[in-house]
Amino acid sequence: MTKPKEITETICKGCGIPFMRTVRAIQKYCTGQCRVKYWNKECVKSSTDWHGRNPEAVMLRSAKHRAKRSGLPFDIVKEDIVIPEVCPVLGMPLVCNAGTGSAKQDSPSLDKIVPELGYVKGNIQVISYLANVMKHDATPSQMIKFAEWVLSTYKEGE
Questions:
Q1: From the candidate CATH numbers 3.60.15.10, 3.40.50.300, 3.40.630.30, 3.30.40.220, the one assigned to the domain spanning 54-153
Q2: Measured between alpha carbons, how far is 88 from 79 in angstroms, rounded to an integer?
Q3: What is the pLDDT of residues 86-114, one digit of tens each?
């Protein structure tokens, strides 16, 4: 024999109109449209604002997730992440592009100096996303060979 479901009135987070739901349901919106409206408008906007104001916290959270997923050591705190005005590798100004959907070439990016050591104190630096992508899978000797090739192939000022 099933227990009768208890019904309660709740205020929709999307439109603010009261609606009826079962006590055990975690429903916060009267309709799916209200849920989509809320997430597309209010929550995403406030999330983007927060990301723009807290880029170090966003980098820390993302790095912790990547470290856990990859089984890498992790012992940094938000204060260990220092975003310079200019990329120390390429000399371009760094711009926090929160809310644009993806990292841009001039976005600050958390780099592991020696990748296998993980996200630990003394092994991280903030460089441009472009510089981080360029060194992503290369070993130091491969990067030196690449730099030598660039120097021999391209003349200064090109």
A1: 3.30.40.220
A2: 19
A3: 999 999 999 887 666 678 899 999 999 99
